[in-house]
Amino acid sequence: MIKFVKYQNKNEDSKAYGKWYARVKDTEKTVMLEDLAQHMSEHNTPYSPGAIAGVLTDMVVCIRHLVLDGRTVKLPNLAIFKAGISCTGADAPENFNVKKNVKRVYLKARGTGIFLTSNITRGCSLGEMEEYTKPKDENQQGDIENP
Hints:
By secondary structure, the protein is an alpha+beta fold.
């Protein structure tokens, strides 16, 4: 179950000022690579957590190298990884300058297969976190169709 907390938009410049929203909240500690390797080793595999962690570590390094080489990397049922650029426009092609116009290079990751947004939405249930100061005017739980 995905846990959420309610919060109010307090940005007075926003059209949504005063409206209430839900925000996903982690309920446990972050799963680190070693934890993932341990979890994977317990699911009908002959590989040890150390062997799995080594492969995953090498995979991350290789994906980084490939993305920095301008390549797109697709892991089916997980994500497509590629680089993106955030920049400002120039009046003409000859006026475009990398140092002046490019603000940052960043990683783009888009879900694929079972991690497509539609598949995540269809497969999830939502519940309000118990341990936080809840707003006084609402106290409901819901699923994705009835938040």
